[in-house]
């Protein structure tokens, strides 16, 4: 498997921990450890879990025209960011469909860090660079040199605080600061993908083992559990966070995908790729919407399963799972706009059986510990 897949700088650590490794977005990554997805999921909801997410892509955008470039290629307005603040955004094609979702960190007035999905890294880099026209800006791929771990859960602050020089007490949600973690120079951000409080730690790939092993060894007595991508998926689904390649893709526009809240049409930011199509859709209305689905009987909804109303297939599940916290089947999927309203009765067709379900606005799990 490793002959064709890229390896995380923590690959050896996962082998030592006897993780089950799977191909994911061109990388070999841990889907779960011997503890199992359910245990890892509960650890994050109730205590704290540690994830390796080093497969994510990191680009550094720097120069006098860095903001001009980002205002051109991303739907959110990076000009609203203060130094030390992060922002959720997306890259869209001219027709408004989603090419990728990403995080934007403002490191300095003219310097930004972009964090993109691993599966889109090469295409994103080429596409962003293609929009540098008569601009004084450089876009550099820092992915290979960067490791990323996420410590997530209601006790994440308590566990990480004594292990870092960054002032976590003064760090609000979607804020970040430079500091040492286990003695390693890092960027510590109060961000995550679980619906719980937590931090993502960007640091040099050559020091990844020091950070990972240090956090686990220092915190094992506190109940820190290594967690894989399986738990990361069930956690993000419980709070309704979309996944690129499933819920977000070139098949759906940003407005159809529920990303309208990050699409900024402010005149002062200028034109951005996809603006015309999205403005037209905003005025005319979207024909379909990404929404939450909660099963009313036992069942395991999966990506690709049809959504049915009155015996007719009207939509599709894009992500689904049996929620460990709620012990119910939950899903994200697309329905015609008029059917995507909370309370609408639908069915999920699971192996030729139509299981009753109801449209529900996420989050499904509402007791997360995020400190906003």
Distance between the termini: 41 Å
| Residue windows where pLDDT falls under 50 for at least 5 positions | none
Number of strands: 20
Q: In the CATH hierarchy, what is the architecture of the domain at 6-55 and 144-238 at level 2?
A: 2-Layer Sandwich
Largest sheet: 6 strands, mixed
Strand order of the largest sheet: 11-12-13-10-4-14
> Looking at the structure, what is the overall shape?
globular
Helix/strand/pairing category: alpha+beta
Task: Figure out the total of helices.
Answer: 8
pLDDT averaged residue by residue: 97
Give the CATH topology of the domain at 6-55 and 144-238.
Gyrase A, domain 2
Helical amount: 10-25%
Cα-atom radius of gyration: 21 Å
CATH top level of the domain at 6-55 and 144-238 is Alpha Beta
Q: What is the helix/strand order?
A: EHEEHEEHEEEHEEHEEEHEHHEEEEEE
């Amino acid at each position: 498997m490793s002959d064709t897949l890229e390896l995380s700088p923590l690959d050896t650590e996962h082998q030592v921990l006897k993780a089950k490794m799977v191909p994911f977005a061109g990388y070999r990554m841990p889907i779960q450890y011997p503890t199992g997805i359910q245990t890892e999921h509960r650890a994050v909801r109730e205590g704290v879990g540690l994830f390796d997410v080093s497969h994510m892509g990191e680009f550094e955008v720097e120069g006098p025209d860095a903001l001009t470039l980002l205002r051109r290629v991303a739907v959110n307005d990076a000009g609203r960011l203060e130094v030390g603040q992060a922002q959720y955004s997306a890259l869209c094609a001219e027709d408004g469909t989603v090419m990728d979702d990403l995080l934007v960190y403002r490191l300095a007035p003219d310097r930004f860090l972009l964090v993109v999905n691993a599966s889109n890294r090469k295409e994103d880099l080429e596409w962003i660079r293609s929009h540098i026209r008569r601009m004084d800006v450089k876009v550099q791929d820092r992915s290979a040199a960067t490791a990323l771990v996420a410590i997530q859960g209601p006790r994440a602050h308590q566990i990480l605080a004594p292990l870092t020089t960054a002032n976590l007490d003064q760090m609000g949600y979607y804020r970040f600061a430079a500091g040492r973690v286990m003695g390693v120079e890092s960027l510590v951000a109060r961000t995550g993908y679980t619906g719980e409080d937590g931090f993502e730690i960007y640091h040099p790939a050559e020091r990844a083992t020091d950070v990972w092993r240090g956090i686990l060894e220092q915190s094992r007595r506190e109940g820190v559990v290594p967690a894989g991508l399986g738990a990361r998926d069930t956690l993000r689904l419980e709070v309704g966070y979309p996944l690129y390649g499933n819920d977000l893709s070139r098949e759906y526009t940003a407005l159809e995908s529920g990303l309208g809240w990050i699409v900024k049409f402010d005149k002062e930011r200028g034109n951005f790729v996809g603006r015309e199509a999205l403005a037209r859709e905003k005025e005319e209305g979207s024909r379909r919407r990404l929404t939450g689905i909660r099963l009313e009987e036992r069942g395991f909804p999966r990506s690709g399963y049809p959504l049915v109303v009155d015996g007719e297939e009207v939509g599709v599940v894009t992500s689904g799972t049996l929620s460990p916290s709620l012990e119910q089947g939950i899903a994200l999927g697309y329905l015609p706009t008029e059917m995507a309203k909370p309370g609408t009765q639908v069915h999920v067709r699971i192996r030729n059986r139509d299981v009753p379900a109801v449209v529900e606005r996420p989050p499904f799990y509402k007791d997360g510990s995020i400190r906003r």
